[in-house]
Amino acid sequence: MAIKEIGASTFHWLVDMLESVEVGLVVLDLDFRVQAWNGFMEHHSGITASKIREQVLFDMFPDIPKAWLTRKVDSVAMLNTRAFTSWEQRPYLFRFRNTRPITGTEDFMYQNLTISPLSGPDGQVEKICLMVYDVTDIATSKRALETANEQLAKLSMTDRLTGLLNRGTWENLIDAEYERYRRYGHNTCLIMFDIDHFKAVNDTYGHLAGDEVIKYTAKVMKDNLRQSDSPGRYGGEEFGIILPETDAEGARVICERIREAIQNSTVQTTAAPIQYTVSIGIAPLTDRPENHMQWLQQADEALYAAKEGGRNRVVVFGEKS
Questions:
Q1: Per-10-residue mean pLDDT for the chain, 321 residues long?
Q2: Which of 83, 133, 151, 272 makes an SS bond possible with 112, Cβ 3.0 to 4.6 Å?
Q3: How far apart are the first and last CA of the chain?
Q4: Where is the GGDEF domain (predicted)?
Q5: 158-316 adopts what CATH topology?
């Protein structure tokens, strides 16, 4: 049916439909003066059609990105073709409060936008129609899924008990640090340490108390490291640290700080207060190791030397305990 053949009754229900549809409809002239403003826009903006008609959109909504929308509209008018934007590119055009109870966790309505040219009888674009779609449900679901995936990715890289990097992730960092040394030759040290007589802690106080000791050890370690350092839980009561840009003496200072903090602490567990110590091995990286596993072996040998030397001490690889 051609527009000129639409009767009065048909036109009435067409207008009624446009007023009640759950899509925002805004018609602008090329100077951005509002020509039409449907019920969706009235409801969410709190501004009636009679009040906003012939008003410049940017005057009524100063937070709309004027330069961005102007470029979009100019392109649509010049090319006489539609343009689309999604909430992922720009969360919203109109800063409407989210009114959906199911997705009440979001403060504002996420919107997709269609910008369409409206031509006159001569075929020239005279006006622009903005169609605003409420996609808050879709956006909320996708954001929740992305957050869940990020959390899963983090869990796959971290130790559940301590929050430190797990063994696999931490060993990958050792490999990366080894390759960085081969390329740039910067000082770097690898640390391995474990809790002295940890089996006796578990046997005497139980595994839950043992877990508290492990968690406390991880906390002391993190509290005494720099942002650039990479601590990890290697397994059981054994931990490791990568110290980039650090020579043997610098590593010794850090390790002694950790050792002394633990030696002077008492862990308050549900079973009993527990005091304990740690032994620490340091392996400064040199040209001698042929791969990162040999570097790790050097740190492990330094740790073994610390234990053989009486425990509760720090030993640098190649030095006597």
A1: 45 57 90 93 92 94 94 92 91 85 69 92 90 89 75 74 92 92 92 96 94 96 94 94 95 96 95 96 95 96 95 90 49
A2: 133
A3: 96
A4: 186-319
A5: Alpha-Beta Plaits (3.30.70)
